[in-house]
Amino acid sequence: MIKFKTIIYSFLCLSLFSCEDFFSTTLDIDPPTSEDLLAVHAFGSTRTNELEVLVGRTLSVDKVADNTSFVNDAVVKLYLGEDLIHELESIPEPSINTRFNFYMPDDIHVFEKGSEYRIEVEAQGYPLATAVCQIPNDINPTAVIFEEDAGTDFDGYEYSGINIKFNDPSGEENFYEMTALYGYPDGSGELRFDHRYTEFIDASIQYGIDNLIANDNTFDGDEKTFELQIGRISPEFEPDELEKLYLNWRITTEAHFLFNKTVNALYQNEDDPFSSPVQVYSNIENGVGLFSIVNETFLKVD
């Protein structure tokens, strides 16, 4: 028996090491064919009444994205029901770091909460890309309260808190986004807002791309308080810091929530060779991407 095991072991060793090119075999694999589609990322807000649209094209696995990935000669139209609201202006010569190459200014149309909008993107050589979005109705917080002492993490870092109280409408799925902001005067009487890093201690909240997201699966129809955490602020010694503190509060669609969730998962898995593939959510018909208009407001933290 020992001799038999020795023979088997020797055979395995020879099979692994006797062939000089065993680990250098080259396989010629043709990349899969892919259909050319438009990649459309269209984002609007009831706070600004602006719509920013980035129109590009999908790329096969053997190509690298650059500014030639943009489709700048597209025709982008926004509809309310069957009524054309606006044909968006193109941005000349967008750079690779641009957020959009088509734009609707804030003086064209006031977004109607509860109404359904449709976007159409047409470009030569591509199928017509379309998507619809129904803007969510208001779900306004009843209170946005500052809490000076909201806990300490394992490294001893101290947090202050923002508690958001609201009543979740029953019998419907609702989706939320939130993050803390700092508001700075910009010299013209308006405030310029910057994101402030925001954590959470609520099991119903999760991370989005640059904000926190939640749905009402666990509190449908209930009075709810979201508990957020920010770096420690002492009103006694830092009154100006508290004065600058705002909350970005959004009611979003399910499509927006799923897109945000899956893109964040994709980023988190980027450097993990053992992670499962992530399929980024899309609501664009005959294309990829997202069309979303969020119900957004900036609220002063009391």
In short, what is this structure?
The chain is mainly beta and 302 residues long. The chain has helices spanning 2-17, 239-243, 254-268; strands spanning 38-45, 51-57, 75-80, 83-87, 89-90, 102-104, 116-122, 129-134, 143-147, 159-167, 175-185, 191-196, 199-200, 205-207, 212-215, 223-231, 245-252, 287-300.
Descriptive notes:
The N and C termini lie far apart (81 Å). Among the domains are: 38-134, Sandwich (Immunoglobulin-like), CATH 2.60.40; 143-252, no CATH class. The longest helix is centred in the first third of the chain and has 16 residues, at 2-17. A hairpin with a 5-residue loop joins strand 1 (38-45) and strand 2 (51-57). The strands form three sheets. Strands 1, 2, 5, 6, 11, 12, 14, 15, 17 and 18 form a ten-stranded mixed sheet that branches. It has a four-stranded antiparallel sheet with strand order 4-3-7-8, with no helix packed on it. It has a four-stranded antiparallel sheet with strand order 9-10-16-13, with no helix packed on it. 12% of the residues lie in helices and 38% in strands. The chain is globular. It has 302 residues and is mainly β.
